[in-house]
Q: What sequence folds into this?
């Protein structure tokens, strides 16, 4: 008996689907224009709060764990830009992640001829948050010279490091959300993610050894903004690249394995 | 007018049961929202003093700042929850209608439900405060007074939040105002830093909002840094804000309800 031919989507298929998702989300968001302005103001105030917090600290000291004020502001620019990319393309999907499992909405994704994880993570796109990417880059440009950023060709490294930040945020957020397959309500874990996220909003150099080690390995929140900013300002050694690759790969593997186990446990609406 | 305690007691009990129905999640939430901001504070002091070698910052040494962090931890959990978001969502979605049929004030009902777990935490905070107080040699009376201030702060916070939530009668994106308010509260309440670290020329910023009454004032009282006259003065300030909040709720909800169409704002 001939085996049924299996449909294997190509990368181009995924790119096309992603394009359609962007178009659909753009149409939806174009309807809510005030929401765009509102979120812009909220994000500006959030940035203002972080900025003020450091301004208060630096009003009392010239350096913080070797970081000068312009260096910390440069870091804030990197962090803000990286977070903006994550917020734009992934964050909203995690808001409804537990509904996928607990309300059985995952059923429909499992029937599609592409990887369900791809659909679960890319269905919702928050295009209004892209404004923050430009804001973050603007802050980086403003403080680059004072922070001692070499500039020139090194600006080409910025997108690469921002993608590292987005990947780290995605893996971490996923790791906090995947437990919805095993728990009835996952909002407390999601909330915990946002609590721990506070560790990403400061340069890793200020942390004591244990916390610093943790946010560089087991919970790599430092990869969202701090490590990219440090790499852009001071460069990165081969061993550090290796460690970065090892941590992110391990996280990706563990997450994927948990997803597979979760799917085995999934019982549609009664899960 | 006779105060009906029956529904209030039922709402309090219901609020507590609802918050603690999922015990592990309740524990996660409390621990996460208490310990992480405290840990962030601690690492800033660590970076300043242990790594940077500073001896004193704004008149406080490492031990003083650590003490502030530990004591403020007792009060950060009391200041309020997300019940203002609940109110604005009720208005926006039209779910408010169900509450309007009940023989009780919806604003008060939501507050009582929300304050129930806070009262439980205040009790735990008092016990914890006595332990921390014993370590630092602080008076239990001061800790009790501080907790009283924190509970006053909870009421003021909720009053202002409920008034802000009423914007949902006019505007779809009312939640954004609440988000902005929460961000300002985190900075100006003394939850992230002792407000004494603010430069002198910025002092008016935190003094002109009631947010300092939520965490900074209770911490100063518990640490015994404010004398009776200062405590009375700030109690007067708190009373003024309570009155302002009460009037503000009457006005905003009074006008808002007239616009309400039961299909959303």
A:
């Amino acid at each position: 008996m001939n085996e049924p031919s299996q449909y294997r989507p190509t990368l181009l298929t995924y790119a096309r689907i992603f394009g359609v998702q962007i178009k659909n989300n753009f149409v939806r968001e174009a309807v809510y224009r005030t929401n765009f302005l509102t979120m812009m103001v909220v994000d500006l105030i959030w940035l203002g709060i972080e900025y003020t917090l450091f301004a208060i600290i630096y009003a009392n000291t010239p350096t913080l764990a070797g970081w000068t004020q312009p260096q910390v502001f440069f870091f804030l620019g990197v962090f803000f830009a990286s977070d903006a990319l994550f917020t734009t393309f992934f964050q909203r999907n995690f808001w409804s992640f537990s509904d996928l499992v607990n309300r059985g909405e995952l059923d429909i994704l499992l029937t599609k001829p592409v990887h369900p994880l791809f659909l679960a993570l890319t269905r919702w796109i928050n295009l209004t948050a892209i404004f923050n990417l430009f804001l973050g880059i603007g802050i980086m440009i403003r403080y680059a010279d004072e922070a001692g950023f070499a500039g020139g060709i090194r600006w080409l490294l910025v997108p690469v490091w921002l993608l590292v930040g987005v990947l780290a945020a995605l893996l971490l957020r996923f790791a906090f959300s995947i437990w919805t397959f095993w728990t009835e309500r996952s909002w407390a874990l999601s909330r915990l993610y946002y609590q721990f996220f506070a560790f990403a909003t400061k340069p890793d150099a200020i942390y004591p050894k244990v916390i610093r080690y943790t946010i560089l390995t087991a919970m790599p929140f430092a990869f969202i903004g701090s490590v990219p900013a440090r790499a852009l300002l001071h460069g990165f050694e081969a061993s550090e690249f290796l460690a970065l690759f090892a941590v992110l790969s391990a996280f990706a593997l563990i997450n994927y394995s948990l997803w597979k186990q979760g799917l085995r446990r999934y019982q549609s609406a009664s899960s | 007018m006779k105060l009906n305690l029956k529904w209030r007691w039922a709402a309090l009990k219901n609020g507590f049961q609802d918050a603690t129905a999922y015990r592990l999640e309740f524990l996660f939430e409390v621990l996460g929202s208490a310990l992480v901001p405290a840990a962030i504070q601690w690492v800033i002091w660590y970076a300043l003093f242990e790594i940077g070698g500073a001896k004193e910052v704004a008149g406080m040494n490492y031990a003083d700042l650590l003490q502030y962090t530990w004591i403020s931890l007792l009060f950060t959990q009391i200041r309020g929850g997300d019940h203002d978001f609940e109110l604005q969502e009720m208005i926006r979605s039209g779910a408010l209608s169900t509450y309007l049929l009940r023989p009780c004030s919806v604003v008060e009902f939501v507050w009582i439900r929300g304050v129930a777990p806070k009262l439980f935490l205040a009790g735990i905070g008092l016990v914890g405060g006595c332990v921390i107080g014993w370590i630092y040699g602080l008076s239990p009376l001061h800790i009790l007074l501080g907790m009283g201030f924190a509970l006053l702060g909870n009421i003021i916070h909720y009053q202002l939040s409920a008034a802000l939530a009423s914007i949902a009668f006019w505007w779809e994106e009312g939640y954004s105002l609440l988000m902005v308010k929460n961000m300002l509260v985190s900075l100006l309440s003394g939850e992230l830093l002792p407000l004494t670290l603010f430069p002198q020329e910025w002092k008016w910023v935190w003094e002109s909002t009631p947010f300092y009454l939520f965490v900074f004032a209770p911490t100063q009282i518990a640490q015994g840094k404010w004398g009776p006259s200062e405590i009375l003065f700030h109690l007067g300030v708190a009373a003024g804000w309570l009155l302002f909040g009460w009037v503000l709720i009457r006005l905003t909800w009074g006008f808002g309800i007239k616009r309400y169409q039961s299909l959303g704002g």
